[in-house]
Amino acid sequence: MQIIPARADSSVNYIYQFGSGNTVCSVSELVGTHTGPLDLGNGRVIPPTGKKIHVLFCTVANFVDGRVNKEYLFWDQLLLLQQLGVVNVKSVPASSLKK
Fold it and tell me: How many Cβ atoms sit within 10 Å of the Cβ of residue 38?
């Protein structure tokens, strides 16, 4: 699933950015409006909803010879789907979960 659905008014705001050696970590927020198709990566696409989104995400990048060698991206996919109105998750008490 792509993290950034097609949108006209989005912005990425960096909250924290730090590094050590050849590794850099950024914690950021994506704010915008879902105005274009969102490819889920499994052949399914969410059509534009016109809904506002606000998602925090983190990237960790490793550099070799001044270029990104590896990059890891962490973000709350469920939160984005909830904001788009695609998923409705109700609270489930921990005591009801099977072990």
Answer: 24
Give bridge partners of residue 39 from the DSSP assignment. Answer: 45
> What value, to the nearest 5°, has the Cα angle with vertex 62 and ends 57 and 64?
150
Rounded CA separation 6/4 (Å):
6
Per-residue pLDDT reduced to its tens digit, 39-61: 888 888 889 999 999 999 999 99
CA distance 53 to 47: 14
Residue of 10, 16, 22, 2 whose CA lies nearest to 81? 2
Distance CA 23, CA 61 (A): 6
Q: What is the pLDDT of residues 9-24, one digit of tens each?
A: 888 899 999 999 999 9
The answer to whether residue 70 scores a pLDDT higher than 60 is yes
Report d(CA 40, CA 42) in Å as an integer. Answer: 6
